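Dear support,

I submitted the protein below through the web form. The confirmation email said the job was done, but the results page showed an empty box. After a refresh the structure appeared. I'm attaching both so you can tell me whether what I see now is the final result or a partial one.
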Amino acid sequence: MNSDIKFYFELFKKRLPVMLVIFLLCAAVGVGMAMTLPPKYRANALLLVESGKLPDNLVTVTVQTRAARELQAIQFKLMTRANLIDIAAKYRVFQGQGGMSPDEVVTTMRQMTRFNLIDGGRDGTTNLRISFESGDPEIAAAVTNEYVTYVLAADVERRTGESGQTLEFFQQQVEELTRRLAEQSAQIVAYKEANNDALPEGLQFRLDRTAQLRERLNLNARDRTALVEQRNQIVAAGSRATVTPTLTPQQMEIGRLETELRSKLAIFEPDSATIQFLRRQIEILKADEVPGDENIEDGVASMLEIRLAGVDAEIRSIDEDTGNIEAELAILEASIEKTPKVGIQLDKLEREYENTQTQYAAAVSARATAEQGNDVEIAAQGERVVLIEPATAPQSPTSPNRKLIAGGGVFVGSALASMFFVLTELLNRTIRRPADLTRGLGIQPLATIPYLEEASVRRRRRIFKILFMLLAIIAIPVGLWAVHTYYLPLDLLVEKIAARVGL
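What the results page shows now:
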């Protein structure tokens, strides 16, 4: 056991220079980066989504997008390539931006920007913290406030634009529906005018008129039958007529007509054509009655002719009236038959008109709501994003953590040096002591003679190790300084390497 400890101790002393070089290299890199990395200043601004100032039960807001989703959309627009390049150029974020490609500028700007969105849901508070990191505290604050200005302007523009678009949409809907109502109303009026004789609202009148005309037809047919019978009686009476010595022909005819009138009144209405005709005949005979001794036979013949002419005239009048009634009935029946089709088409047009009226009323109501919502947005009385804490130039840097970087270099150097010692021992299979000879060959040596190195060789190797260590200690800081000064700042170089490897 003691021999093993002594062996590993000697081995440790032998490999100590290389381990020291590894340790010093890593420690120097850590300390060099801690000392040379420029300070970074992070400016922060806080935005809050403020609820509407008017009660929800009194005002309907047309912009219904959730605040968190709205802020995310604005964030995506802000982080576009053109915006970031313009902001970087406006505030001269990078000293050597002229030598950087646009892709490098955009990537670095996105890495230096932070958005921390806290979604409070429908009942909670939603806020957004924006921060930007730069080597100049004034630039960090200026860029952060530029982000804030963009977010506030985009929020106002989006909300007013959305409410304005909603109002414009419903305004167009109202105008379109107004035009459609006018067209449909004109169609209904034109259709009614074209089918005025078959409109459903006049159907009952036409049915009543048809019934009246049919009743008149029946009365005319009955009156005509009576007149034809009367004519036949007159013709028969003329063939066998005798003159009464004591009465004139007029008096005989008046008596007969009065007798017939009394019998007809029991059958016909007082204002019927037959009754009226008999009364006119009696009035004519009474007006023409002349006393005297004229020839009775001539008088009788003359009266019969007069009666026949009157009956024939009445029959012709009834026939003419019947023809007119039948013509009117044909028109009425055609219109009655046409009424159902007209009613169906008219109902269709009126339903379309009513549907359009319903849509028009809904569009007018929605337009009023949209106008109210647009007024709310213009007056900034609705939900909106407000600035709670603007960005100010930080007084102390937020990064780098120099102690952590230096300590990390020392820790990594110690770990790598230890790993070097362990790995070299595990991988070294050469025979260096009697135990290795026994384990490797399976024999027990009587004695071992170690390799005797000359003093000059040991001296040269020691000098070489010392020079190597000094060179490493000096060269590493000088190399880091040269890279930082003449090639690329170490912070940007580290960020570029991290981006390449996907960290």
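Response: this is the final, complete result; the empty box was a page-load delay. The two ends are 47 Å apart (CA to CA).
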